[in-house]
Design a protein that fits this description.
This protein has 306 residues and is mostly beta strands. 6% of the residues lie in helices and 50% in strands. Strands 1-2-3-4-5-6-7-8-10-11-12-13-14-15 form a 14-stranded antiparallel barrel.
């Protein structure tokens, strides 16, 4: 098992040592509750049917600001080595509106120690794209690239992922969209860039009341700076979560979450940019809700931190 851990760690470090790229997909302060969006191998990992939604309002007060909403549903099948999931994302930024629909499949290898699991995942679906380019103010009159809107252009895509987890540790690597499709079906430069993700985290017991859960996510793609998110949450009596987040050279934030019942968790988050654009907006806000459906008499077997 130590060899397995070393291999997965090497995979994670290899991603972080690649040429620096940037991102097109949306950021989330509560990225640790949105793993299925980036890694299909996460499907079914909670051991029950889970539904999680996140809505993000970025740079409030700024015209054309990004707005993102995600919904994920996933569950293991009765044959628990197989997990199925569905993710939907609606993302708006300026004239670009994207709606993504993806199905997720995972297969889990189990070891003698049943708490340790290694999952492989496949994601497949499509991105529905609308771009209102004609509404933009241009510096070049009659620019042919900005005269025609893009209406309901469909880009099919697929992705893969690997996810290793125990009740108190996880690490994963993935690329959720492998194909680099054009946004309008014509352009050879305005395309969806391939994204690479690495995620890692753990939970540590401090005493009978408090635990600490550090997590990190790295995101790499062509065209903009490397993105690294790091967070740490303090967990009180398995019910109240309070934490802070930092995005490299971009933002810092805070979040609170409350386990209202053993099945239902609600979270609020905010972050503020560290760049000049922060002077022109009122910050960023997120709402997260997650619900576990229980169909077995034994209920939720243990607290879930990832």
């Amino acid at each position: 098992m130590k060899n397995l851990f070393h291999i997965l760690t090497l995979m994670f470090l290899s991603i972080s040592s690649m040429t620096v790229f940037g991102q097109q997909d949306p950021h989330f302060t509560q990225y640790f509750d949105n793993t299925l969006f980036v890694n299909p191998a996460y499907a079914g990992s909670k051991g029950l049917l889970n539904v999680t939604g996140i809505h993000r309002e970025q740079w409030v007060g700024f015209d054309g600001r990004p707005r993102s909403t995600t919904l994920s549903v996933h569950s293991p099948l009765s044959y628990e080595s197989v997990g199925l999931g569905f993710t939907m994302v609606n993302d708006e930024a300026g004239p670009v509106k994207q709606t993504m629909f993806y199905g997720d499949f995972s297969y889990t290898l189990k070891f003698k120690n049943k708490n340790r699991k290694l999952s492989f995942g496949l994601k497949a679906g499509m991105n529905l794209i609308n771009v209102g380019t004609s509404t933009l103010e241009t510096t070049e009159i009659g620019d042919p690239k900005l005269l025609q809107n893009v209406r309901n252009h469909i880009n099919p895509n697929f992705g893969v992922g690997v996810y290793y987890h125990t009740p108190k540790f996880f690490i994963g690597v993935s690329t959720p969209k492998i194909l680099e499709n054009s946004y309008d079906g014509v352009s050879s430069t305005n395309i969806e860039k391939r994204h690479y993700f690495g995620i890692v985290g753990g939970v540590f017991t401090l005493n009978d009341y408090w635990k600490l859960r550090p997590t990190a996510q790295i995101k790499i793609t062509q065209g903009a700076p490397l993105s690294i998110d790091a967070s740490i949450a303090a967990i009180y009596r398995e019910r109240f979560w309070i934490g802070t987040m930092y995005r490299l050279n971009a933002a810092f934030g805070a979040f609170v979450q409350y386990q209202i019942t053993p099945q239902f968790k609600l979270g609020l988050a905010t972050d503020f940019g560290t760049q000049a654009i922060r002077n022109y907006n009122s910050g960023t806000f997120e709402l997260m809700a997650s619900y576990d459906f229980i169909f077995k008499k034994q209920g939720i077997r243990s607290p879930r931190y990832f």
